[in-house]
Amino acid sequence: RASGYATMACVGVVGVHAPARVRVDANRDRRALGMTRAKLGDARVRSSGVGISGIASRENNELRKLFDATRRRERAFQVKREPPRRVMASSDEQELSKEPSARRSYVPRKENPEVVMEAYWIERGVELVCSECEATETSRWVENRERPDEPVCAACYARQLAATRGKCCKCGKDGKDTSGMRKSKHKEGEWICTRCALRELREPPFDGCTCDACGKGASDAVGVWHRSKLKNRVWLCGKCYVKERFMIAEAEGTKCVECGTDTTTRVWLNSKLVPGAKICRDCYNKGLISKAKAEGITCGECGTDTTSSWINSKLDPGAKICYTCYRKAKISEAKAAGVTCGECGTDTTVKWHNSKLDPGAKICYTCYRKAKISEAKA
Fold it and tell me: The whole model's pTM is what?
């Protein structure tokens, strides 16, 4: 026997009364509907014999009302109404759809515009020269905080902004004497200068901090600490953070826009030719070398115009030196400082590395490679 409860309005001759909770018997309603139909049919037969068209008597009007009310009740219990569902389009349909959303229009943002706000100053007839350092090239032009009608380069604007943020929470240097200020990762709500921020990356956030992925801590000579982007902002060492970034890039299907590879070393870099696209480290280095050749850059030490990477010269500000001369200069600098290998005691090597066993000490490249091989075997 099918039965249940329903809330319905009591309908009478006068009008609609308050809703009432009544017990519903579906079988009883069906029987009543059948009886009502039979009575209504008999009434029509009787009325047709006296020449009355339709049901005009008071009795037949009451039967008609009962029939209509019973039919409405039956329909109400038979038809189950569901709330409308919002159907989301598939990713393919969303990509094919060219019509913007009625609720929100999305405009893709360029990650690497050529020069931000360059057109803004050109339209006003202002010469693009920094009013502080007189530079003519920058990544973006910004209004001078002291003289809004004059432009400043991005570096000078960072210094002006740093001057309003007080002192560095680590070294105590005033913001106006720094190249920039940013929020500290270790001290909430505090500002830290750019130089100390780089040092802060190499320091554990708190005593006993370990990498959430590999479990290494400060005693394992972790180089850099980062917040995880996949987990709930846990701390990761530099190597695990790079692995996480590669996992994200692989999930997004990142490929080099120039050579088409899906692998790279260290990190993916933004393309300057295609805004929003990525390029691998090799193509990035090739682009730097090609640009340097086009500008006629040569090494200030040996005069070559070909190298794997260009480094700023410490002896001649503004000049460039090749990577080979840079390594020679680093080795000569280490010799002058009396640096020796903490493992074998040599003072000559192609490259010095920090020792993991003895923090602050150096090891030669040969001992570094031996340690890496032993670590891989273990």
Answer: 0.44
- Report residue 297 CA to chain centroid gap: 37
Q: Which domain holds residue 42?
A: 23-73
Helices (H), 132-227: 154-163, 194-201
Retrieve residue 328's tokens. 């020679």
Domain count, the chain: 2
Read off φ and ψ for residue 209, nearest 5 degrees.
-70, 135
Angstrom distance (rounded) from CA 46 to CA 19: 37
Assess contact for 84 and 39: CB atoms under 8 A: no
Residue 370 belongs to some domain of the structure: yes
- The predicted-structure confidence for 34-72, as pLDDT tens digits, reads as follows 555 555 555 554 544 444 444 445 656 666 776 777 777
Q: DSSP labels for 331-345?
A: HHHHHHTT---TTT-
- Could you give the CA distance from residue 288 to residue 240 in angstroms, rounded to a whole number? 28
**Which among 73, 108, 134 is the end of a domain?**
73
DSSP H stretches of helix in the chain? 26-49, 58-78, 91-96, 118-123, 154-163, 194-201, 238-251, 281-294, 323-336, 365-377
Task: For residue 252, tell me if it sits in a domain.
Answer: no
227 within domain boundaries: no
